[in-house]
Every structure is written in C-alpha cells, then in structure tokens.
Amino acid sequence: MGRGGAGKTSMRSIIFHNNVARKTRDLEPTILWDNKTDVQFLGNLHLNLWDCGGQDDFFNAYLTTHRELIFTDVHVLIYVFDAISAELDKDIHYYQSCLESILVHSPDAKVFCLMHKMDLIQEERRDKVICHTSSSVTKVILVWERLYK
Fold it and tell me: Where are the beta strands (DSSP E) in the chain?
C-alpha cells in the first residue's frame, strides 16, 4: 500500500519480474489493484502479492467499499512512503487508515514501512528527510498502540 507514484509497482516489477529500474518508467499506474503476482519459494511457501493503486479515489474505495476484501486475511502489509512526496500529512493519514483497517480485519498482520526514492534526495538532506518522516510515522504508531492494543 502507499500513495500514487510512491513506486510500489516499480518495486514489484524489479523484485518479482527481474526488470531493470530504467524500464519502470514505462509502467502504467495500477488501477484499483493487481493481485496476479503469486510467487512460490522455499519449497511450497506461496506469496500472493497485491499491488494496490494509490490514487486518492482508489484509496478511498479501499477504506470504504472494498475494505473487507482488501484487509481481510492479510499476513503482511508493506506501506511504501515516497521520500520526495510533497504531501506527507496525506501519506500519514492514509497510513493511519490502513492500520485501523488492518486492526479490524487482520489483527495479527505484521506491518512494515518502506521509504522509497531516497536516491532522489540530495545526500546531505537524506538524514533530515528520514528523521522527519520517521517521527511522523512513530507518532501514528504510538497513538495506534495506545488506542488499540
């Protein structure tokens, strides 16, 4: 999960389809979701990966109309933050909404956050970006733990 343009589809393309990074520029945005990536590894362990489009309309649908479908039976949720996003507050709001939905429909799921596109930030600014985003994410987690655990 993550906002539109965060790089979710690009990461999936590189990791699971062996594409090179420069080819990801040709990828189309994901419409609603794509759950066609089913990877078998370590013998008979299966990974069914859902790539959810991050445009606002889709996110609102995930959190309302499709909430049960998207968040039920989730074992791992990976939320991707775009390091160059100009709308961190909106990113944090969607992240918090995902946590609330996971709690209701898959309370035992593990949640991970990734910060993508760090290479696009000047090296001398990276620590500041990481600290700022991490601080915002940590505040959400602390509130979430107090309210729901």
Answer: 33-41, 45-52, 76-82, 110-116
Residue 32: CB partners within 8 Å, gap ≥ 6?
A: 52, 53, 58, 61, 66
pLDDT score of 83 more than 60:
yes
Q: Which amino acid is at 28?
A: E
The Cβ of residue 15 has, within 10 Å, a number of other Cβ atoms equal to 12
Answer yes or no: pTM beyond 0.85.
no
Alpha-helix runs per DSSP H in 80-149: 88-105, 126-148
From residue 124, how far is each of 22, 118, 121, 143, 147 by CA, in Å? 25, 11, 8, 31, 37
Cβ contact 3:91 at 8 Å: yes
Residue 53 CA to residue 34 CA, distance in Å, equals 8
